[in-house]
Amino acid sequence: MAYGQQKGTVEGVVTDASLNNETMPAVSVSVQGTKQGANTDINGKFKLELNPGAHILVFSYVGYQTLRDTISVKAGNTINLNVAMASDAQMLNDVVITGEVRKDTESSLLRQQMKSAVITQSIGAQEMGRKGISNAAVAITKVTGIAKQEGTSGVFVRGLGDRYNNTLLNGLPLPSNEPTSKNISLDLFGTDVIQSIGISKIYTADGYGDVGGATVNIVSKEHVGSPDLSIEIGGGLNTNAFRSDFKKADNWNRFGFYNIKTPTTLQQYTFGSRWSPKTVNNPFNYNFAISGGKSFNVGEEGRINLFATASHTTDYTYRSGSEKIVGNRQDIVNTDFFNIQKFGYKTNTTGMLNLAYRIDSKNLIKLNSIFINGSSSTVGEYNLVKQNEPVQFKRQTLTEQNKLFLNQLLGEHQLNERLNLDWAGSYGIVNADMPDRITNTLSEDNASGYIFSTGDVNANNRYFQYITEKEWAARAALNYKLFKNADNTYNGKISVGYNGRQKKRDFEATQFSLRMNGGNTGIKGDPNDIDAFLNAGNLSSSADPNTFTLRTARSSNLTPFTYNVDLQNHGGYVNYEHTPNDRITYTLGVRVDKVLQKMTWDTNIRLPSLDFDDAKIDKLFILPEATLKYALKEDENLRVAASKSYTLPQFLEKAPFRYDDITYATIGNPYLKPADNYNLDIKWEKFPSSDELFSFGIFGKYIKDPISLSRTAAAEPSLFSFYNAGDYAYVIGAEFEARKKITDYLSGGVNLTYMYSRQELDMNKVEVETGGNHSVNFNTNHDALQGASPLLVNADLTYKATKGNLRPTFSLIGNYFYDRIFSLGAYGKGNIIERGYPTINFVSSVNIGARWDLGLKVNNILNNRIRMEQENDDAHVEVYSYKSGLDFSVGLKYNFFK
């Protein structure tokens, strides 16, 4: 028997062949048939001491291919073994590769987060499926510090709303589909087209500088591995909407495609649909989808991966409740909207084609085309009381259609061992149409029931709005590796790049108002049959009794109101990254952005003292940034990031156009100027295993010339506009996140954000900077930021097991936000506060064998009341109150090739 046998050493580096051979930390390196093994460190390095003889090393990482290598160890010798975990099924020396690479798993995204030189977070298709997430808008609200505000399509990141955020697809910007928004509605992107979503709450020099909250980058789904084809069908209902008298617009289309024309004459009745809505019984939601992919070899080295998907979803909603417009005391109720009913129907039709051509190991070209048609049809019915006026009935029927067509071409090229080139270009167009918004107002009359309101010429109208937004974008970057090591890895790189975009928006709107010619007695009207009077037979070109006359806001002129915006943004950057030792990685970067935004308009707002050039933004921004990552241990990092960025006003915020809704109106402010943002983040993170995470961070943002929504000085109590309301605002806060595998079957996660925000409010600044054309009277000289909830909490608990051919997964997902400002108060009228509430969703799925998937979801289990209150000095008055109902859905999916 021999004692103290001398061992041999096996050491090396594991890299990711699909990510330009970047090192892979936390990879399991084990000796087959034994309990010996180790994990690679933060730089992908591993080291084993083994007895002499033949051994099989197994390299594994969840979501990646398993690799095996046979080695022969000699006493006292060292074997250097560098292994690349490749994405294609091929032989690497003596390594046998099995399985498929997936970049959408929770573990692979955590690995990327751990090794990244900058602070970032991601949510992938695997996690979205486990949590029953249907689209990108819901997905990012599960990320620390992000929340959605009632009545908006955008999100708030650390208290900063839509204007402070950026949305990208594969690193390229997207045009907006809504006139009120800078960013495209994230709910247009269903999970069928998403591989992962990256969220960066810090600014880095390689991105666009117009960001203060977060950059959201949607990575479109790609095909890898074996052929795949699946079909999915589903159905469900909303407990509120499932009723016998559900109302839809007369011109509604089941699939969400409309072809409604704006009238071209005031002398003839050419409206294409009825004024009164239709009624349907017990509507239910449905969805279907088909997706598939296949890979093709091209020549000796080439490979094409093809993925395509098409889907259609519908969603019925119903809300009943109340709203009020309140003065500066609880007893001053300007308008009381009671017994409100809101019927909603939405569709989403999506098609995507993704083609990736791997020319050889050094060159990759991708083509991505996507079409999305999102539509909504809503019917809102309002009973209302105004001071000193009879009870009124109002109905607004609203049809919207948003069509996005986007093409992207992207390339990655390894020019030599040190130098690579990444480039991309895109063209996108959005047609966001509101083709025929119908508004009717009738007043109660004791003698005849209802009569058409005649006091306001706009009380009965039809409104047509069209937006075309086009966007061209391009980016290119040269990355040169520095500081080569003996094992052929590198400890640094320098990047030089360019990002550019040009966005054009053309907006036009025409409102056809009906002047009622009813004399002293008025004209009788039936809320359930508006068309009995409003029809071609009662249209008159003169003031004949018991008729109506068509007029636009320009009287008899049909020329629409318009505004046109041209935004050009060109930026160049240099970024330096260095890892001087095993623990420290830092980056230093600077970006120079040239912004030119020009605007012209011909609208319903007259500003004779304002020239188009006065509304122009022509500015050069110099934006430095720096990050530091310090590896406390192999699985533990401390990070610091600091940067400067800016925020441009949204197009509609600057355009001098008045938009009227039932309960409020907004008007743009062409005097708005950009805000400057100064950002600081400090974060600690620990990765106990490949699918576990603990992190804690603190952050701060200082904003110069912040933009806020506030009531105006006009006599109307519900007219709002946008202002650089003060010289500064700031947000400070802390974030915590934990993901833990509790048992082999049970896992959970929680993240929470606590923050404090404050902004200066200066009415003199507003009046001076707008040349006296705007004025406000804030209640105080400081307040919290609009949309900034002091506390956000997300939590989930998942049970996952295998029972023979059944693999069930059950998840509970919860969310809570604390009270936050919906809009700032003025003239003694208090802030409107959205009251916080918790939500709980249940998601379950069962994999049956290899081909069948069965799912069940129940959303909004608690069905809490959504409430807003106006905080006046003498009392808090409820001004908004609804319940949304529960959503039940089931789905069945069949996979043909598994």
Strand-pairing-aware structural class: mainly beta
The CATH architecture name of the largest domain reads Beta Barrel
Count of helical regions? 5
Task: Tell the overall outline.
Answer: globular
Total domain units: 3
User: What profile does the largest beta sheet have?
Assistant: 22 strands, antiparallel, barrel
CATH class membership of the largest domain = Mainly Beta
State the helical fraction: under 10%
Q: What portion of residues belong to β-strands?
A: over 45%
Please identify which CATH superfamily of the largest domain we are dealing with. Answer: TonB-dependent receptor, beta-barrel domain
Number of β-strand runs: 52
- What oligomeric arrangement do these chains adopt? single chain
Provide the low-confidence segments as ranges. 87-101
Compute the CA-based radius of gyration.
Answer: 30 Å
- Please give the alpha-carbon distance between the first and last residues: 53 Å
> What's the mean pLDDT score?
87
CATH topology of the largest domain: the name is: Maltoporin, Chain A
Organism: Olivibacter domesticus
Protein name: TonB-dependent receptor
Subcellular location: Cell outer membrane
Main location: membrane
